[in-house]
């Protein structure tokens, strides 16, 4: 992508052949050049402001993000400019620009407007798909099932699948990170009638303690695939811990 950017700038006459665009002291127009490169490849508008024909191939918004990320990496990591926003020097009498040109108001504003146009054209989903109970039934049932047909689906054995079922359901219901789930031990769990109490030994958001316990109840049969109490009980039964 870095080479593609420099080739584009040379073709536009903004960069001399053999001249490097990526350096420790970027030129003042660097953010404009980055916007023009992304706009030429991904936008529905030409550099002259006209609407591109529908038959013209355009990159997705995801590809535009990769293009910008390549610019941020090229200036930030390869040339030591970091992720400091593009700004003018505050030293009196010094009008030089400092920071990473890809992390500039101009580039950020353009990426927002590009996403808006992509959404209006139906090319970008407005929101992510919600995780619902029915949506988790198939993948979780494949993990927990002990009578799957032999083949790729019959992996790990019933014990490993029940362990994963317990980990997945606890993480889902308690909104836990997996490093938090993996630190749970048997003495952190206690059962009561129709449920269990989970006391986490570690929580990233409560690193100084004061972690409130989770009270998990047995779910109805219709949502048994999400029931952490059933999953933990089955895991204890097969593991004999």
Give a short summary of the structure.
The chain has 241 residues and is mainly α. Helix content is 43%, strand content 7%. The chain contains 8 helices and 5 strands; from the N terminus they run H-H-H-E-E-H-H-H-H-E-E-E-H.
Describe the structure.
- The chain is mainly alpha-helical and 241 residues long.
- Helix content is 43%, strand content 7%.
- The protein contains 8 helices and 5 strands; from the N terminus they run αααββααααβββα.
- It has a 3-stranded antiparallel sheet with strand order 3-4-5, with no helix packed on it.
- Residues 147-152 have low confidence and may be disordered.
Keywords, please?
single chain, 241 residues, mainly alpha, three-stranded antiparallel beta sheet, two-stranded antiparallel sheet, 7% strand
Task: Note the gap between the termini.
Answer: 53 Å
Mean pLDDT: 85
Major sheet: order of its strands? 3-4-5
Shape call: elongated
Q: Which percent bin holds the helix content?
A: 40-55%
Oligomer: single chain
> Based on helices, strands and strand pairing, what is the structural class?
mainly alpha
What is the element layout, followed by pairings?
Layout: H1 2-12, H2 30-42, H3 61-78, E1 87-88, E2 97-98, H4 105-120, H5 133-144, H6 157-174, H7 178-181, E3 189-192, E4 195-198, E5 214-217, H8 228-239
Antiparallel strand pairs: 1-2, 3-4, 4-5
Helix pairs in contact: 2-3, 2-4, 3-4, 6-8
């Amino acid at each position: 992508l870095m080479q593609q950017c420099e080739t584009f700038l040379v073709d536009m006459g903004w960069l001399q052949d053999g001249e490097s665009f990526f350096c420790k002291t970027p030129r003042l127009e660097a953010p404009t050049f980055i916007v023009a490169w992304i706009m030429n490849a991904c936008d529905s508008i030409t550099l002259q402001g006209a609407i591109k024909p529908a038959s013209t191939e355009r990159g997705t918004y995801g590809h535009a993000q990769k293009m910008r990320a390549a610019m941020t990496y090229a200036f930030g990591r390869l040339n030591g400019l970091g992720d400091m926003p593009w700004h003018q020097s505050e030293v009196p009498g010094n009008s030089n620009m400092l920071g990473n040109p890809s992390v500039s108001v101009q580039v950020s504003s353009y990426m927002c407007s590009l996403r808006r146009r992509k959404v209006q054209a139906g090319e970008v989903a407005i929101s992510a798909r919600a995780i619902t109970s029915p949506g988790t039934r198939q993948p979780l049932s494949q993990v927990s099932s002990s009578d799957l047909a032999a083949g790729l689906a019959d992996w790990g054995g019933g014990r490993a699948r029940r362990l994963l079922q317990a980990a997945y359901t606890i993480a889902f219901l308690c909104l836990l990170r997996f490093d938090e789930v993996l630190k749970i031990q048997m003495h952190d769990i206690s059962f009561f009638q129709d449920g269990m109490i989970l006391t986490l030994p570690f929580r990233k958001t409560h690193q100084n303690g004061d972690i409130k316990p989770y009270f998990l109840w047995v779910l109805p049969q219709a949502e048994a695939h999400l029931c952490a109490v059933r999953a933990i009980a089955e895991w204890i039964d097969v593991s004999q811990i």
